[in-house]
Specification:
The termini are far apart. The chain is an alpha+beta fold. A hairpin with a 4-residue loop joins β1 and β2. The chain has one domain. The strands form four sheets. Strands 1, 2, 5, 6, 8 and 9 form a six-stranded antiparallel beta sheet that branches. A five-stranded antiparallel beta sheet has the order 7-10-13-14-15, with helices on one face. Strands 3-4 form a two-stranded antiparallel sheet. Helices cover 27% and strands 28% of the residues.
Length: 236
């Protein structure tokens, strides 16, 4: 008895081309969406990390770990570095009581220099040692509205009761947005309804980290104008 011979057909060149074409179409649709999702996620991660720096150092001053704290903002054309710093009670008492330096130098309280007259001004500094009370982060996926330098230094200082709250060089809030090769700053236009301004069309994923003199930290997301909604900063 002869074995039955089965006819086995392979895929034709035409069928292979059709499959490749379908894969190409699906990829062309899906990849931009994935890229946008990844970019949005990276920006959101930077914003949450930045918010955490402000929240964490304010938690330390409120629980009495420090008498006076600072968040330093160093801005370059390529990145943003946030460094939290803490002044202990002993250093604060010396400046306030013994030398009367504190009352005589109101404009210098939120100084970013870490040494004063050969002694530590900020006792604990983020990025120095392995202290958990202070922190330092570098943001590379986001830009800011603050002018860059080599680096340009900004800062804001907090105390437990809010009495010694000091924003330095206009650091009343921090706007972060997506950093691109074409735009390494968050372009904000004047807007009478909000001092933070209106985001330019070239500024993507704009968010504002806000703080009160009492160390309450919030984040607003900028809502761009649509056919049915006006532009606005919306609390997240």
């Amino acid at each position: 008895m002869l074995a039955q011979v089965k006819s086995i057909k392979g895929i034709t060149v035409l069928e292979l081309l059709i499959v490749l074409m379908i894969i190409g179409v699906v990829s062309s649709v899906a990849y931009p969406n994935f890229r946008d999702w990844r970019t949005t996620r990276q920006v959101q991660d930077d914003i949450q990390r930045a918010k955490s720096v402000f929240q964490a150092i304010n938690a330390q001053v409120k629980r009495g770990q420090y008498a006076f704290v600072q968040v330093e903002i160093a801005v370059t054309a390529n990145d943003i570095t946030l460094t939290s710093k803490g002044m202990n009670t002993s250093t604060f008492s010396d400046l306030f009581n013994q030398s009367d330096w504190w009352e005589r130098n109101i404009n210098l309280r939120c100084r970013t220099e870490n040494i004063l007259n050969g002694n530590p001004y900020w006792n604990d500094i983020g990025g120095v040692g392995n202290l958990v009370e202070v922190n330092q982060i570098v943001l590379e996926k986001t830009a800011t509205n603050l002018t860059a330098g080599a680096p340009a230094i900004y800062a804001v200082c907090f105390s437990k009761t809010g009495k010694y709250y000091t924003p330095l060089d206009g650091a009343d809030y921090l706007i972060l947005c997506r950093r691109t090769n074409a735009f390494n700053t968050c372009v904000m236009n004047d807007w009478t309804e909000d001092v933070r301004g209106k985001a330019n069309a070239t500024t993507e994923l704009a968010h504002s980290i806000n703080w009160s003199r009492f160390g309450e930290v919030t984040v607003d997301k900028y809502r761009y104008q649509t056919a049915t909604k006006d532009p606005a900063w919306v609390l997240q």
